[in-house]
User: What shape does this take?
Amino acid sequence: MSKAITLVYDPICPFAQRAWITLLEKQVPFEKMKVDIYNKSEEFKKVYSKAYGRNPDNVGMVPVLVYGDLTIAESDLISEFIIDEFKTGSELIPRDNFDKVRMRRFINSVVPKLISNFYGFFQFNKKNEEEQKKIKENLDAALREIDKEIEGPYAIGKEFTLADIMIYPWLERTPILKHLGGYEIP
Assistant: This one.
């Protein structure tokens, strides 16, 4: 008998969307447990503590994957676990070793730059003019690097990979930056 899979998520969370997309791409059937990360239920806290133990510094974030007796937090760890555990659907990891290295470099170097600069806009209006200018410049630089790195139509070439899953939720959200700080993609 197969183990039940539950994705604990908040639909507004881009990190949770990474795990969700991976499950869909791997064609893995799963249940969903929707949570509000701003109003955490006791049930969620109990599930989350299984992933991280009872460390009081862990505030409880999504996604969390429950697979039988195993509980995993962190979108990148969940996605890699799903890819390794299930051989259905899209491969998501290139077979060619050089392409694997390129994919890992993209995930470990390029994606974090976009994410960190993206979140600079959430406090944009509380910053002074010089800080706002720097936030925009940093995001411009991150997007230029992504543009330079992408060998299209996907992040590292002709195949949709884990690199695309790791960056997509933020690229999808770039239009909101116009409303947060008047930013438009160059």
In short: The first strand starts at residue 5 and ends at 9. The CA atoms of residues 35 and 43 lie 9 Å apart. Residues 5-85 form a domain with the Glutaredoxin fold (CATH 3.40.30.10).
